[in-house]
Amino acid sequence: MNGYKVMPAEAGDLERIMDIFAQARKFMGELGNPQWQDGFPQKQFIADKIARGIMYKVMCEGDIAAVFSVLDSDEDYGDIDGAWLTEEGEYFVLHTVATAADYRGKGCARFIFSYAEVMAKERGKISVRMDTHEKNIPMRSLVASLGYEYCGSLTVRGGKQRIGFEKILKG
């Protein structure tokens, strides 16, 4: 689907963003994926990301179709049972990707990854990292199709187990 546009999320978007996370949480639960079933991400967590300027919205025809956040690094990625492809400071992080139900299957998540890779290059990074739950089969399939390599397992906030992926960016 064409016509996606990325913009920084704003405080006024918070309710729609939380609705998108609720839709994503429901979808994951229906697929047997326990990720986010504890209510993560909480409203204040997302409000903080918006205030810090690291939460983005993907617009389509005036509607927020999806959301994601980015970081220049992640302390949770320091200890992995496996090995990352790059060193500290060389990578960009894509987090909290969620697509509204009406936009699922329309290339929105693929667009987000492509956009994040451009952002990473613009910031002088040579790779993009992300993590997900081992039972998040749709996300695992997507990252594999986009050339992300499985790097190992890690523990993130709250002691949750995740699997990490990384992609070295081309020139």
UniProtKB/TrEMBL annotation:
<protein>
    <submittedName>
        <fullName>GNAT family N-acetyltransferase</fullName>
    </submittedName>
</protein>
<dbReference type="Pfam" id="PF00583">
    <property type="entry name" value="Acetyltransf_1"/>
</dbReference>
<feature type="domain" description="N-acetyltransferase">
    <location>
        <begin position="4"/>
        <end position="171"/>
    </location>
</feature>
<dbReference type="InterPro" id="IPR000182">
    <property type="entry name" value="GNAT_dom"/>
</dbReference>
<dbReference type="InterPro" id="IPR016181">
    <property type="entry name" value="Acyl_CoA_acyltransferase"/>
</dbReference>
<dbReference type="GO" id="GO:0016747">
    <property type="term" value="F:acyltransferase activity, transferring groups other than amino-acyl groups"/>
</dbReference>
